[in-house]
Structures are given as C-alpha cells and as structure tokens.
Amino acid sequence: MKHPASHSIACQRMTKTPKFISLIIFVSILKLFGCAEQTSKNGTITKTDTLNQQINESIETFKNRPIHKVLTTKTIDTTSDDDLLQVVFDNIVEKFPSDYKKEYQAVLGLTKPQQAIYIIWSLEAEVNNGGFNQFYFNSSGQYSDLIPDALKMVGALKFADLTTRANDIFKKENKKITKHQDGTLEGFSKSYEDNPLNKFDDEFYDLEKSENLQKLQVDFIRKNKAQFVDK
Questions:
Q1: How do the domains of the chain map onto residue ranges?
Q2: CB 162 within 8 A of CB 147
Q3: Hey, is 35 helix, strand or coil?
Q4: How many angstroms separate the CA atoms of 138 and 142, rounded?
Q5: In whole angstroms, what is the distance from residue 219 CA to residue 199 CA?
Q6: Tag placement on the chain: N or C end, fewer CB within 10 Å?
C-alpha cells in the first residue's frame, strides 16, 4: 500500500501545486527517517548526498518552471509529452479565484476537456498520496460523481470502471468509512482500519501499469487542443 506514515489534515483542499507538495512530503520523509546518512568521516560523497542533491534540484526546477497564464496552440505543439500535462494543469489553475471555496464553481466553468484534466489530476494526486480514503475525505471528493465520465472522456475506461465501483462502495458504506473522521489526525488515520476502500487502492496502483493514464491524457490534449487554448 502507498499510504504515507501520516496524512495531512491541512491538505483538505487541492493545492495549486500538488506535485510540488508530493516532493516536499518525500523530502520530509527522508529527513524524518534519517535516510540521509551524513557525508562519511573521510569526507567522501555518499549515495544519499547525491540523492538529496537530485531532490533539491528537482524541487528548484519545479518551482522555477514557466507558468503560462495564456495557453496557445504553439505552446501545446512545442511542449514535450513529459511536460504537457503539467503545463495544461498550471494554466487551468491560473483561471481559479483565490478563494478556494469557489473552486467547484470555477471547475464547472471550464470546458469539458479542461474539467476532465483537472479532475483526473485531483484523483491521482490524492489516491497516490493517501488512497481513495483521502480522495473522498479531502475537497477532491466533491468531484467523485464527475470522475468516471472524465476518465471515459480521455479513454481511461478501466479507471472509469474502478472509480464507479469505488463511488458505489463509498456511498453504501459511508457511515463505516467516516465513523472515525472527527477532524483529527488520529481519527483520520484510524479510518483506514478495515476500510472497504483500501482494496481499490491496490487495484488503482496495479492498473497504472496496464492503462497509461498520463499518455492517454497527453494524447487527448493534443487531439482536442482547441479546447485548452486561450487564443
């Protein structure tokens, strides 16, 4: 399972940079568990030093990436497949008001293809960090009924089926799933015990091996770029 050692109650709304937050969590875990062996007494560079340097460089690169407030056809055409999803997501988030209480309304105001990319990103960010339990617990859960259609739109039919089944279980077993979710970290952590959603986490991670969700989204954006450009 990919459940982290601790689940952040503060992450009850989607942040503007979920992948950056994931990097921060990873760095924190390294520090917490003392993964960073210090440079050896003779001054040689350890593997951990190199890893820490790579992490720091990745964070700096991410922080300094260009954000396109206005997305053009040329930008989409000249952006690599590896970076396109991030570029489109950043552009979508730039359209949102600073008041995250209005996030849902802002998402509904997007084109259907933009909605699909944003909602799928929300799903991936939450499930990969803390499973479906975290997805439904955080503000991302407000998109649960929209998720299956968003996934179908980009051609991720297996993921659409999975999320449909997860939605059904969440609705049927809601009292059991949310029983311990009293707003505390302890309560949220306890809600993972004997949680019927846990089985969907393993299926989600395994499915990523056979249905490339990133590639499907990139291909979808390129085929429907008129729905993503601002001019």
A1: 15-64, 73-227
A2: no
A3: coil
A4: 8
A5: 29
A6: C
According to DSSP H, which parts of 79-184 are helical?
A: 81-93, 103-108, 112-137, 147-153, 157-172, 174-178
120-136 per-position pLDDT tens digit: 999 999 999 999 999 99
Residue type, 221: I
Mean pLDDT of the chain: 83
Contact 177, 198 (CB under 8 A): no
Buried b (16+ CB within 10 A) or exposed e, 140-151: bbbbbebbbebb
Angle, alpha carbons 18-147-128 (nearest 5°): 35
Q: Which residues of the chain have pLDDT under 50?
A: 1-39
pLDDT digits (tens, 9 = 90+) for 158-180: 999 999 999 999 999 999 999 99
Class of domain 73-227: mainly alpha
Rounded alpha-carbon distances, angstroms, from residue 98 to 15, 95, 103, 106, 120: 11, 9, 9, 11, 21
Kindly report the number of other CB atoms within 10 A of residue 4's CB atom.
16
Residue-level pLDDT at 128: 93
